[in-house]
Amino acid sequence: MTKKDFWKTPYRKKNRFYIRKDDKPESLLFSTLPSFFRSIFNRKQAVLGAQNWIDLQEPKQKSHKPLVTWIGHASFLIQLEGLNILTDPIFGDPSWLFPRQLPPGISIEKLPFIDIVLISHNHRDHMDEASLSLLGKNYFTQFLVPYGDKHWFVKRQFKQVIEHEWWQTTKTSNKKKKSIRCTFLPAAHWSRRGLFDKNRSLWGSWMIESENYTIYFGGDTAYDSHFLAIGNAFSRIDIGLLPIGPCEPRSWMKYTHISSEEAGQAFLDINAHHFIPMHWGTFSFGIDYFNEPVDRLKAWWQNQQEQLHKKQLHTIKIGQQLLFDLPLISQPTNVFHRDKNDKQKEEQ
Q1: What does the mean pLDDT of the chain come to?
Q2: What domains lie within the chain, and their CATH numbers?
Q3: Which residues, in sequence order, are CB contacts of 84 under 8 Å at separation 6+?
Q4: Closest Cα partner for 164 from 338, 13, 347?
Q5: How buried is 203 (Cβ within 10 angstroms: 0-12 exposed, 13-18 middle, 19+ buried)?
Q6: How far apart are CA 125 and CA 131, in angstroms?
Q7: Would you tell me how many other CB atoms lie within 10 Å of the CB of residue 36?
Q8: How many CA atoms lie within 13 A of 261 on its CB side?
């Protein structure tokens, strides 16, 4: 397999997915326990600074230009071409062990009609059953999920569920027949819902494309060469939504989560123009102090001014709306792109 093709498809063995052939399911219980107890102490410190990161605004019903609202963690409301897209929705706590440090930027009751829900992977802080159950009552909402997760949704009577392997695309059109393409892309992470289903389903990131705009949602990931593969596959990326935490302890966090500095390098790798950081502040999963991921990102940004010419960093608050009035661009080209319809044709 050439370097160009490395991220085309994950390695699969005995119905489990791996990024590389020599990857093994990790056992991090004993290494994570000390960090968990330290994170409890950090939560008490977080309360002091958390209120400065809340800017709740009334959500718009729709927008044709990119309008991005951070709900918290990896949850965004992305409004584009009159369609409303929700990423990795979680409006409560993933478990009693990890309570929210910041309220959701939009309450689930105030959400506009959601056309598309994008799921990056099945961890409970990204695929939250309580939040999804409330969204799933509407028949017309599409749920685009990683390969292996569709059965979870079907079992709970979700109707419009489409699962994806890496580089597969689903098109959705608005009432004016303008389409949005959502392409499932690689990430360096893993999946699990229960005790025995480690890596039974896929994980990844998403590219959202309209005729004029391109938005990358990074999901949850460690730093790896998939960012360069994605950057090479798309001719232009306007907005990059990238995780920046938890950062510490780096000795084992580096295998599954990206640090602030690595997220900055990933932003350069994909060659995006606007950077919106996410996956920090909402829950205390590491031993970072509350502001650490965003403080480190700002410091990195200051030290990389030569490479960041004409690029912009937006450290938006919970609930804050950011409207982009970007120049019109041609449709980006995805070199590995396959529509779901093409996949179905291959299987017939």
Answers
A1: 86
A2: 55-347 (3.60.15.10)
A3: 62, 77, 78, 111, 112, 113, 114, 115, 116
A4: 338
A5: buried
A6: 10
A7: 15
A8: 8
Neighbours of 166 (CB within 10 A): 24
Instruction: Give the residue from 108, 121, 114 showing the smallest Cα distance to 82.
Output: 114
Measured over the CA atoms of residue 44, residue 52, residue 321 and residue 245, the dihedral's sign is negative
Judge whether 168 and 187 are in contact, CB under 8 Å: no
Angle between helices 260-270 and 226-233 (to 10 degrees): 30
* Cβ burial 307-344 (10 Å sphere, 16+ → b, else e): ebeebebebbbbbbbeebeeeeeeebebebbbebeeee
Q: Could you give the 3-state DSSP secondary structure of residue 299?
A: helix
Query: What is d(CA 17, CA 3) in angstroms, rounded to the nearest whole number?
Result: 19
DSSP strands (E only) in the chain: 11-13, 16-18, 67-72, 75-80, 83-87, 116-118, 142-146, 160-164, 168-173, 179-185, 205-209, 214-217, 237-243, 272-278, 312-313, 321-323, 338-339
DSSP string for 261-291: HHHHHHHHHHTEEEEEEESSSSS--SS--TT
Q: What is the tens place of the pLDDT at every residue in 175-201?
A: 777 889 999 999 999 898 888 888 899
Q: What is the DSSP letter of 253?
A: H
Residue 165 tokens read as: 């392997």
0.85 exceeded by pTM = yes
CB-CB neighbours of 281 under 10 Å: 27
Comparing CA positions, the residue from 258, 266, 207, 206 lying closest to residue 237 is 207
Is-cis flag, bond preceding 246, omega within 30? yes
Q: Which of 240, 239, 249 is nearest to 292 (CA)?
A: 249
pLDDT tens-digit readout, 269-279? 999 999 999 99
CB 208 within 8 A of CB 214: yes
Six-digit token string for 66: 């990119």
Q: How far apart are CA 198 and CA 249, in angstroms?
A: 23
Q: Give yes or no for a contact between 249 and 103, defined as CB atoms under 8 angstroms apart.
A: no
